[in-house]
């Protein structure tokens, strides 16, 4: 999830924990513990390849969380001698687990089992920025401040919301997957696989990606118009063998392949030669508001610049 969502969840949980751990310091402790895993954003200082590889990496794994929790509670114990070490460690790891949960429910994927595997796991149930989800949590936190004596009850309701909303979305996703898959089978359309992903303002808007050999087809889904025929748009699959060949000279391309899921490509002529645009449909949107925002390219789009001889002379990534 986005940083605001992590802060909102951390402060609401911290406010609830104040009923058990006395003092405001617990609120700040929970806030820091809840955003601590994103310290790996510093990898971006070493370039886009390092960012793609290491963000949501070891600091977002179950083992990395143990180390982060130990570091944070040690800092607080050193600064405040009365700070409970064992309980503080347990609370820090709980906040870490909440952070991981919030990242797992989005489509970006999180390497929760590093160093054993670098696979990026995801539940694909909530869009990376979800105003419905986040604003509700913020409101719960504000209510817990206004009605301080009832903060425990308000906090529990908020925590139920934190978990129930993604579960509801996940159920809707599975329902859509079943319904759309059956509709496509009945229509006699051949496909390798079908994938339902959250779009901006899910659970109302979703997108479907249909894998058909050398093409992907994508369409938006509106929960209020499920009877409407899908307006599928075709995309040529990216030439992964080209990226694998380029990876022999630059490791970035291997990292990009590892990071991506539904890679497509398009060619655009330039004054010097040809630009090949490669991007992941996972980060594209079918919602008009975001389509205008990313009218040229979605996030993490890769542009390969070829000269008239067909040789790559440069590349860039939209981030």
Please give a structural write-up.
It is globular, with a radius of gyration of 22 Å. The mean pLDDT is 93. The chain has three domains: 3-122, no CATH class; 169-235; 238-317, no CATH class. Helix 1 packs antiparallel against helix 2, helix 1 packs across helix 7 and helix 4 packs across helix 5. The protein has helices at residues 3-17, 25-35, 48-54, 62-79, 85-104, 131-146, 151-186, 240-246, 252-259, 288-293; strands at residues 193-198, 205-212, 215-222, 233-236, 263-269, 273-280, 302-307, 312-317. Strands 1-2-3-4 form a four-stranded antiparallel beta sheet, covered by helices on one side. Strands 5-6-7-8 form a four-stranded antiparallel beta sheet, with no helix packed on it. It is built from ten helices and eight strands.
Radius of gyration: 22 Å
- Global geometry: globular
Would you report the number of β strands?
8
Q: What would you call the structural class?
A: alpha+beta
H/E element sequence: HHHHHHHEEEEHHEEHEE
Question: How many distinct helices?
Answer: 10
Keywords:
four-stranded antiparallel β-sheet, 8 strands, alpha+beta, 45% helix, 319 residues, globular, 3 domains
Secondary structure blueprint with pairings:
Elements lengths: L2 H15 L7 H11 L12 H7 L7 H18 L5 H20 L26 H16 L4 H36 L6 E6 L6 E8 L2 E8 L10 E4 L3 H7 L5 H8 L3 E7 L3 E8 L7 H6 L8 E6 L4 E6 L2
Antiparallel strand pairs: 1-2, 2-3, 3-4, 5-6, 6-7, 7-8
Helix pairs in contact: 1-2, 1-5, 1-6, 1-7, 2-5, 3-9, 4-5, 6-7
Give the gist of this structure.
With 319 residues, the chain is an alpha+beta fold. The protein is built from ten helices and eight strands. Helix content is 45%, strand content 17%.
